[in-house]
């Protein structure tokens, strides 16, 4: 190589080396920044998923408690009406006793329906079937009806049908919990 060219190349060598170092550093910073951004997005996504699962679990627990109160109140009403069918009590007294011993508070049933509709719509159809069975049971627990012994057997059958469907719904709720 000619001395002039060699001298020019040697003069620019530090500049070229520094430029390559700067480019390498910039590339490293860009790659690190990109990786950190991707990791941050993934952490945020995982945090949101965990919060969503925790929220669903909390709502499922609340749903289960409200459902239990509702179910027990209906079972209690049936129990206080058995003496009415046997002639040992009046329907008015049975209604009063049932009302005094309710577990549900005002608005609990609406809250139960709202949680089902908003957070667990896949369970709402099954709950609708249970409501129909509840209505069948309540037909036997009204003040203005005939309370004859054969009707007691019908009340018990209606209550058993309700209980069986309620168990099915509880199984579905448990499946929801295990899928979270």
Q: How would you characterize the overall build of this protein?
A:
The chain crosses the membrane at residues 12-35. This protein is mainly alpha-helical. The protein has one domain (53-179). The protein has helices at residues 3-85, 91-100, 108-119, 121-138, 149-179. Helix 1 (3-85) packs antiparallel against helix 2 (91-100) and helix 1 (3-85) packs antiparallel against helix 5 (149-179). The longest helix has 83 residues, at 3-85.
Structural class: mainly alpha
Could you estimate the helical fraction of the residues in percent? Answer: over 70%
Total domain count = 1
- What separation lies between the terminal Cα atoms? 74 Å
- Biggest sheet, in brief? none
The Cα radius of gyration reads 35 Å
Query: What is the average of the pLDDT values?
Result: 91
Q: How many runs of DSSP E, i.e. beta strands? A: 0
**Individual helix count:** 5
Uncertain parts: none
Transmembrane segments: 12-35
Keywords: Membrane, Transmembrane, Transmembrane helix
């Amino acid at each position: 190589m000619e001395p002039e060219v060699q001298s020019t190349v040697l003069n620019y060598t530090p500049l070229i080396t520094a430029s390559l170092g700067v480019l390498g550093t910039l590339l490293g910073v860009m790659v690190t920044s990109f990786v950190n951004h991707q990791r941050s997005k993934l952490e945020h996504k995982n945090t949101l998923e965990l919060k969503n699962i925790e929220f669903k679990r909390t709502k499922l627990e609340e749903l289960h408690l409200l459902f239990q109160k509702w179910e027990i109140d209906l079972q209690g009403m049936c129990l206080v009406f058995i003496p009415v069918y046997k002639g040992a009590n009046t329907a008015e007294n049975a209604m009063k006793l049932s009302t005094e011993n309710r577990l549900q508070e005002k608005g609990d049933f609406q809250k139960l329906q709202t949680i089902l509709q908003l957070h667990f719509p896949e369970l709402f159809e099954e709950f609708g079937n249970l409501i129909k069975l509840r209505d069948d049971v309540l037909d036997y627990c009204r003040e203005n009806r005939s309370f004859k012994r054969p009707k007691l057997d019908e009340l018990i059958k209606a209550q058993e049908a309700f209980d069986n469907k309620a168990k099915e719904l509880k199984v579905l709720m448990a499946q929801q919990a295990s899928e979270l």
